[in-house]
Fold:
Amino acid sequence: MSRSRMLLSFIASLMLLAFFMGCASTSKSSSTGEYIDDTVVTAKVKALMIRDTALKSFQISVETYKGVVQLSGFVDSTETKEKADFIARTVKGVQSVTNNLIIK
Structure:
């Protein structure tokens, strides 16, 4: 093989290695697939909360990281807080829910 072909093969191998290493997750970051899954989970939880007449009047923040949903914001009662928790837990892909909603 000529020198230029060997160099080109080496560069292509390095690029593939960098691509696959960039998609791997570590304990402090999530992979592209995990990020997309978390985004879908967040969107589904928010959509269900907007559909619920008891919850849509409140501004509840929903964030997801590696399947753990965090709820934050203010609600008017314990029942509303529990309902938001229940709705989040029903979404496929949710591993657990951290309910930091505050009753005002």
DSSP finds three helices and three strands in the chain. The first strand starts at residue 60 and ends at 65. The mean pLDDT is 84. The first helix runs from residue 3 to 23.
